[in-house]
Amino acid sequence: MDYTIDNEYLNGLMQQVMAKNPNEPEFFQAVHEFLTSVKAALPTHPELIEKQVLERIVEPERQIMFRVAWIDDNGRMQINRGYRIQFNSAIGPYKGGLRLHPSVNLSILKFLGFEQIFKNSLTGLPMGGAKGGSDFDPKGKSDNEVMSFCQSFMRELYRHIGPDCDVPAGDIGTGAREIGYMFGQYKKIVNEFSGILTGKKLTFGGSLARTEATGYGLCYMMEVLLAKKMNTTFAGKTVVISGSGNVAIYACEKATQLGGKVVALSDSNGYIYDADGIKLDIVKDIKEVRRARISEYVKAVPSAKYTADSNGSKGIWTIPCDIALPCATQNELNLDSAKKLVANGVKVVGEGANMPTTPDAIAYLQDQKIFFTPGKASNAGGVATSGLEMCQNSARLSWTFEEVDAKLKDIMVNIFNTIDATAAEVGCENNYVVGANIAGLLKVSDAMIAQGCI
Ligand code: NDP
């Protein structure tokens, strides 16, 4: 990939980032997108260069890496690597998920932590940016093994986090089960019941609507975009969603409630197509109860079709749709896929996952005048609701589902209006990548400058 930027200062900074962080392609990709977007703000915000905000913001405040040793069911010790990247705390305590997946490495967590800074800023809540996790793979492990890993992971992480310092959450591979085991271990070590993690079960401080928040929030943003930009709604639209995890399932639920017809979902082995519309109760049973593969769907719905796809499920993007919602993982929608989507009449692409669309695919979609919302804006409903969980924990109370859902919807509408207005202000109308990066940055930049040499 070519990381050149047509601005001498920004290009120099990009080269420095690459020299200082060798072999971190996902991190370069995220920084490159950000610096390229920020170019449009430089004429009206000279402080970004004068106060060296950009040079500071690309450097994490702290990176923690540690050994996680745990015992498997055969009594053997297993060794994984744990991470926490505390990227920026200018506007609030560090906040961001913990990813458990064999692909996890420093580059992936730095890209996620970096994007989290701007996402959290866009929510309007006081949260800094962070990310963490491990190359541990929960798939195929027993509950005991997952617990053993989570407890060992927390035995190191606890010393680096705290309710006013850093509040981790879930992400790929980290759901309510893993958060529960980690919370229990933190409480035991510190002897303190505090809102140290979000995404908890309702019985010990979790928030109603947190499980649904990222997928619902994505659809709330799509709803406002459809209304404001295309004078239409979800009703009658065909929707394709990749993934079948937390984000995908609840995007599917809300898109369906809003009148859309979701016809496809996937996992890393393949995708299902159901022309009559996905039956979500069946998917929830497969994924949330049985933790099985999406291929099981066709056993319950024989009229649906399963296609095995060794290519990370990219075949899902050949299915015609009006709205495409990539909700699985980074770089899952490439230029070829974008071309197929456009040829088949897609109108809107909304990212539910983090950085699922490759840079050339984004450029192509924007060139074709397809409305495209980047994950740092359209999946911000998850962390926003985590912020609401922190509020409830601090106040020692619980809001109703309807209260949280209404706040989530407000936040998503506000984010859309902000990125839309910001893009227009800097002369890049409808470019929500530019709008999200600049709007997210300006609040953080103001706080960094006010706090001096940090
Ligand atoms: P889950 O672990 O619940 O689900 C992930 C889904 O994506 C699974 O269906 C998984 O399939 C699929 N997937 C993972 N890796 C790959 C791959 N390499 N190729 C193809 N498919 C893959 O995670 P979430 O739903 O929580 O997260 C999905 C995305 O959304 C991530 O990018 C995450 O960072 C982002 N996100 C999540 C938030 C949340 O609140 N959960 C908040 C904001 C962003 P398989 O089971 O085969 O691995």
Record keyword descriptors for this entry.
17 helices; 454 residues; Rossmann fold; binds NADPH dihydro-nicotinamide-adenine-dinucleotide phosphate; seven-stranded mixed beta sheet
3D architecture notes:
- By secondary structure, the chain is α/β, with parallel strands linked by helices.
- It has three domains: 8-57, no CATH class; 62-193, 3-Layer(aba) Sandwich (Rossmann fold), CATH 3.40.50; 213-378, Rossmann fold (3-Layer(aba) Sandwich).
- Helix content is 46%, strand content 15%.
- It is built from 17 helices and twelve strands.
- The protein has helices at residues 8-20, 25-38, 47-50, 53-57, 106-122, 143-157, 176-190, 210-230, 246-257, 280-289, 297-300, 335-343, 359-367, 375-378, 381-395, 401-425, 432-450; strands at 62-71, 77-88, 94-100, 128-134, 166-169, 238-242, 261-267, 270-273, 305-308, 323-326, 348-350, 371-373.
- The strands form two sheets. It has a seven-stranded mixed sheet, with helices on both faces. Strands 1-2-4-3-5 form a five-stranded mixed sheet.
- Helix 13 links the parallel strand 11 (348-350) and strand 12.
- Helix 1 (8-20) runs antiparallel to helix 2, helix 2 (25-38) runs parallel beside helix 5 and helix 8 crosses helix 16.
- The chain is globular and about 60 Å long.
- The site of NADPH dihydro-nicotinamide-adenine-dinucleotide phosphate has 25 residues, from helix 9.
- NADPH dihydro-nicotinamide-adenine-dinucleotide phosphate is lined by residues 170-173, 214, 243-248, 267-269, 312-313, 327-329, 332, 352-354, 379, 382.
